[in-house]
Amino acid sequence: MTEAWRYSAQGISVALRVTPRGGRDDIDGLETLANGRTVVKVRVRAIAEGGEANRAVTELLAKALGVPKRAVRVLSGTTSRLKQVAVDGDPNELGEALRKLTAPKPD
Predict the structure, then answer these.
(1) 71 part of a folded domain
(2) Structural domain containing residue 36
(3) Which residue, 10, 34, 44, 92, is the most exposed by fewest CB within 10 angstroms?
(4) pTM to 2 decimals?
(5) In-domain check, residue 107
């Protein structure tokens, strides 16, 4: 499985599949879509209305990656479950943090 993020000089760009009204705010690992694209599965309690789910996603990622909220922004997919999100910061540290967050969880 390939990584669901790309590195840049400013940080990383992460492909997400978001489940609004998912019961809890959490990162559920990686998923390969039917087209072969790898995404990070994210669920949030917020509803997908008025940008609430997008705000919840950016807050969740900021907290999980240890960056300020202003360092996370939705690049594309604001009205879609599939989103591209930019995270500003050290790309190597962010990539390592995402690897740990998306690693398979023991049963």
Answers:
(1) yes
(2) 5-102
(3) 34
(4) 0.92
(5) no
User: Tell me, what DSSP letter sits at residue 71?
Assistant: G
Give the start-end residues of each E strand in 1-107.
5-7, 11-19, 26-32, 38-43, 72-76, 82-88
The CATH number linked to 14 is 3.30.1200.10
Phi, psi for 9 (deg, rounded to 5):
-65, -30
73 within 8 A of 85, measured Cβ to Cβ:
yes
Separation between Cα atoms, residue 64 and residue 48, nearest integer Å? 21
Task: Check if the beta carbon of residue 33 is closer than 8 Å to that of residue 16.
Answer: no
CA angle 72, 94, 90 (to 5 degrees): 85
The SS3 call for residue 65 is helix
Count of positions (residues) in the chain: 107
